[in-house]
Amino acid sequence: MASLALQNVYNNFLPQFMPKTTRYDTHKKDELRNVYAAIMRQTKESPLFLPLSGDSVIEYAVNMKENARDLKNVIASLSNDDSISLLDKKTAFSTDESVATAKYIGNDNAVDPDAVPSFDLGVQKLAAKQTNLGSFIDDGPMSLEPDTYSFDIHIGDTDYEFQFNVEPGDTNREMEDKLARLINRSNIGVEVSVVSDNAGRSALKIDSVATGKPEGREDIFTVSDDSTSKRAGAVAYFGLGEVASKPQNAEFTLNGNPHSAYSNSFTIDKAYEVTLKGVSEEGEDTHIGLKPDVESLISNVESLVDGYNKFISKAYGYTETYGLSNKFRNEMRGIQNVYRNELDAIGLTFKENGELEIDDKYLRSAALEGDHNDTLRPITDFASEILLEAKKISLNPMNYTNRIVVEYKNPGHNFANPYITSMYSGMMFSSYM
After folding, report:
1. Which residues are CB-neighbours of 354 under 8 A, at least 6 positions away?
2. 3-state SS, residue 47
3. For residue range 108-159, what is the model confidence (pLDDT) as tens digits?
4. Taking the complete model, does pTM exceed 0.90, yes or no?
5. 412 lies in the same domain as 396
6. Which of 116, 368, 397, 408 could form a Cys-Cys staple with 65, CB 3.0–4.6 A?
7. Number of domains in the chain
8. Is residue 39 one of the residues assigned to a domain?
9. Residue pLDDT, tens place only, 264-277
10. Phi, psi angles (nearest 5°) of residue 303
């Protein structure tokens, strides 16, 4: 029984605190073994130091770790594998990104890349979620009698019951806020907010997370208290069952042929990942295809520089706020000095704040040379170096705080302690390590 209770508590808090992950946060067994081995190597000769405490230290460590993860994911998204083949990653384009954006997800090593098809896309409708909008009521005392009430939300094939107590003196706004928190914490596929009108009244608004019309049904979810276990009346009082907008499927054409989808994001021929953004003008289609090799190459370099600049800007901001350690800044300055001249020669220049800016003329000239793999090699070498830096930060962000060293170990005569990172930072293995 205690085990079941613990599991319920864990499941309740997990969605709130687990960071948003991407497909680049999943790893094979050998990759996880490599992470473990890296922790062993890093901690074997690590000096003993006093653990620091305080909210600023915690915020700095977590932010640095998350910032490093974001950079790793940017580089992974531009790579076919761990070799960081940035220059060969193909890039899709859309002639009107206000209607649709496209990402190439096909095989970059295809025998005949020119055989990858292009499409004309016309969008008639976007996929929409369901919205229930409750009754607008004043913020004063509730007119529901004090008691225990409950109602059911039916979504998919499951019914979820929610119970709450009405006490003497409770106000409508307090109860709306309470119900919004109660439903949102359950993570069942709906999102609840409290909205206000011009008269100062408020209402509960329930949105489905999913879009599209379920097969064989009109609604994604329903709210009722017809067969609930406690006292009924809350659904009518708050107007929770009132559907303000029905869910709908996306409707679009590909090369003139009609199609539909439950979501605004879908794949085409296992080559493109398309995300619909708006409805097409009548008679106008958006063309989706692959950029030429040189354009793809330049687009990849721009994405790398953008990801690097965000990484540097955030990390320097965290360091300035924390204000006690220059370790990160010194390490990045060392990397920048190594690659400064080589990158400058192909159009990438370091600014005073450590960020990169691109001279399109020089970069395009380098990309058009006979063997751009050699010409632009400084970029891939630089990407490899900052990827190693990001991995170091991910393994032990506390290494970049102003630690108080107690004792240095005797070099070459130490045992590995795989938990030393968590001992000092309070971080155990996370879902995205």
Report:
1. 312, 316, 329, 332, 333, 336
2. coil
3. 655 455 667 889 999 999 999 999 999 999 999 999 999 999 999 999 889 9
4. no
5. no
6. 397
7. 4
8. yes
9. 999 998 889 999 99
10. -65, -40
